[in-house]
DNA sequence: AGTTATTCTTGACGGCGCGTCGATTTCTGT
DNA sequence: ACAGAAATCGACGCGCCGTCAAGAATAACT
């Protein structure tokens, strides 16, 4: 069919396989939202993505791998968003930076709730996912730690050092957004507010 | 055999089934520690508990149910320990109460790390476990909220109310003990210290 | 003790989802 | 048009699950 081969900006249309791979990821995201990870089956995935069960393994080694790719894609969006935080600007108020960080995190959760939730749930059990999630968390923690140090928290590795405190607060945010997303309450904006408040108290030397 | 039937304090020795049930739970706890939940199989469980696969289902409906029973037993130990916290005593300093709460929680994690870890991991995915864990968390949150109110946090359901703040901090502690247990570092006592510090900052009006 | 009722154990069965593989079809460049 | 690569298919065997009817062990009763 399609002999026209419309000339989009990009030369060389994506190969058939690229399309299919994306269809699989899309199906995965939809099914994560509708039935949840456990109930997803390679069969249902391929049914929705077009094709048969066996074909799946041309693209991914495992169901977990496919979801891991989805997680990767999503957390990298967060990563990009946080990169543009002007952490080291001179006049930046630490608390405001954290608030901005929270707001941008909230945005990703709002956009990709099911994927983020699944990541939180599966990170402990599924290595492929746990790895990507850990990397993402580390990145956030590092950024937050820099801010915390700016705010005056001790730059030590002791139990009252910026690193230790930040690690816990980041984890808190993770859990908070997760819970709010799962139960559809309270609204994410309230979670952001509560987190912001707690950070504020912890940064105030 | 054994016609002697030693007279223990308790009349009427436990029925054979009770013994077996306990053997299953014991096997479950050991295997949680050694191979982890996913790798536990009803077969391996019964092999260690004595008996054959089919017999398992006389005691539990499912592998998840067995582990849920184990979780139940463990969190109820925590519950008992926290009940004796003199929350409403007149001269009690709120921060000290929280610190004591943290110390007792730490003790349970130290004693039953594998079970607590498994509970955290499985609560989101396995309803039978999620229910018990949620109940336990609610109990802790309620206690902590009472303390937070004593410390002066607003008794409202707004995003800066004691309930909202406490919910997040409790979750933080959960995640912190989990991580420290899993990675065997930092020592639980340090986690307790860091948590205590954060609570302190949040309770200082 | 002997008989009955209950508790407990067993092994076999069918089902589901997984991951592999070789055979086959569809694409792509030349 | 043709060769090689990319993509698809369907069948196979595996492991673990939960059910079940039949049988053995145990407790209760007289």
TrEMBL record, chains A, B:
Molecular-function GO term, any one: DNA-binding transcription factor activity
Domain (HTH tetR-type) ranges: 18-78
Keywords: DNA-binding
Transmembrane segments: none
Location of the DNA-binding region in this protein: 41-60
SUPFAM superfamilies for the chain: Homeodomain-like, Tetracyclin repressor-like, C-terminal domain
Descriptive protein name: TetR/AcrR family transcriptional regulator
Source species: Desertihabitans brevis
């Amino acid at each position: 069919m399609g002999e026209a081969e419309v000339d989009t900006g990009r030369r060389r249309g994506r190969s058939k396989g690229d399309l299919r791979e994306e269809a699989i990821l899309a199906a995965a995201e939809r099914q994560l939202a509708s039935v949840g990870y456990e109930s997803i089956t390679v069969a249902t995935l391929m049914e929705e993505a077009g094709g048969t069960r066996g074909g799946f393994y041309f693209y991914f080694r495992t169901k977990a791998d496919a979801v891991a790719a989805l997680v990767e894609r999503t957390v990298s969006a967060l990563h990009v968003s946080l990169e543009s935080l002007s952490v080291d600007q001179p006049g930046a108020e630490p608390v405001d930076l954290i608030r901005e960080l929270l707001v941008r995190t909230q945005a990703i959760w709002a956009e990709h709730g099911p994927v983020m939730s699944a990541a939180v749930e599966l990170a402990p059990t599924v290595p492929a996912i746990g790895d990507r999630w850990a990397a993402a968390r580390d990145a956030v923690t590092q950024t937050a730690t820099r801010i915390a140090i700016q705010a005056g928290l001790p730059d030590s590795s002791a139990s009252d050092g910026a690193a230790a405190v930040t690690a816990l607060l980041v984890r808190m945010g993770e859990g908070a957004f997760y819970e709010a997303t799962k139960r559809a309450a309270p609204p994410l904006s309230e979670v952001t507010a509560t987190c912001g408040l707690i950070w504020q108290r912890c940064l105030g030397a």
